[in-house]
């Protein structure tokens, strides 16, 4: 029994610090503050486990009786960890066995492409990236093509079969060679999408600005390639230059405004949200039809870097919300799944498809990351086909 209690306390301890990590990374705090917070969090986790281990072995046996002999503050923390552990374990069981995928998912097929086998040149660049690729189970060189059909209750009949490609979190750092992204672009263009929609974190390092044209400029879609920026795009200090280069590459910015495309005689209204890192979305006005289409209720799609903006999205009556930022946790443990995701909701919306009342939200695992590490969480490219209600 003592062993079980220590396990639950340890789970609660880790969960508490993961909650702190997730909430810090869901803010618009400067990168340097978030990185310092990471170090403090790691120290907090390790110090707690070292303390627990000391208590466990102090009497030569595993015993929780030592809790009652500890200082008041220590007892309070241990009891807090115990309660937190019970809560998070019960919540894991609930999400694992009781929460079902939304009925809006009509079909789902996955195709894995090993970019190392497609490219003649190595895709990892630099000693650090090459070291990470040797970690057993690292999937950062894979591209997972997620082909999904979504049924939207309010989809106009004229838009039956609309094809959308969702891309997120390119993270152009130079750690992955440009050939990795060119393979991705080739797959996207073969999908022959009506719309290519990008949900932020395009570029991290200034030297990679020269990749914008050969990567983003090569993306093809019948009705346009549109984007929002994310928190890592703040690392390019010259924001106007970045947006201008993206525009020159043929991409359309949608942050804080409506971009309308008429497809098969029906309006498709697309807007963007880059909060809390870039302003603009707070000024968005409710959509008003231009009156040129045959539909009085057009399809409304939101591009948001963070899934945390779903409450904001619901106020504007979006039909479909696409997001990224969370990377699926980037490392998913067997059985347990992810434990960290930069969201105020923790791992709840780390990746996947969710029904939020009348709005469908899909959160991408992203294409890359700050570091080239992916465990049980391969990079994702979303190929979505929209249908009306059954």
Descriptive labels:
alpha/beta, Purple Acid Phosphatase, chain A, domain 2, 2 domains, six-stranded mixed sheet
Short structural description:
This protein has 390 residues and is α/β, with parallel strands linked by helices. The protein has helices at residues 2-24, 31-57, 72-97, 115-118, 127-133, 178-191, 212-216, 239-248, 310-315, and strands at 105-114, 142-151, 163-167, 195-199, 225-228, 251-253, 258-263, 266-273, 299-304, 320-323, 332-333, 337-338, 352-356, 359-363, 380-387.
Write up this protein:
With 390 residues, the chain is α/β, with parallel strands linked by helices. The protein folds into 2 domains: 2-97, no CATH class; 105-387, Purple Acid Phosphatase, chain A, domain 2 (4-Layer Sandwich), CATH 3.60.21. Helices cover 31% and strands 21% of the residues. It has 9 helices and 15 strands. It has helices spanning 2-24, 31-57, 72-97, 115-118, 127-133, 178-191, 212-216, 239-248, 310-315; strands at residues 105-114, 142-151, 163-167, 195-199, 225-228, 251-253, 258-263, 266-273, 299-304, 320-323, 332-333, 337-338, 352-356, 359-363, 380-387. The strands form 3 sheets. Strands 1-2-15-3-4-5-6 form a 7-stranded mixed sheet. The protein has a 6-stranded mixed sheet with strand order 7-8-9-10-14-13. The chain is globular. The mean pLDDT is 94.
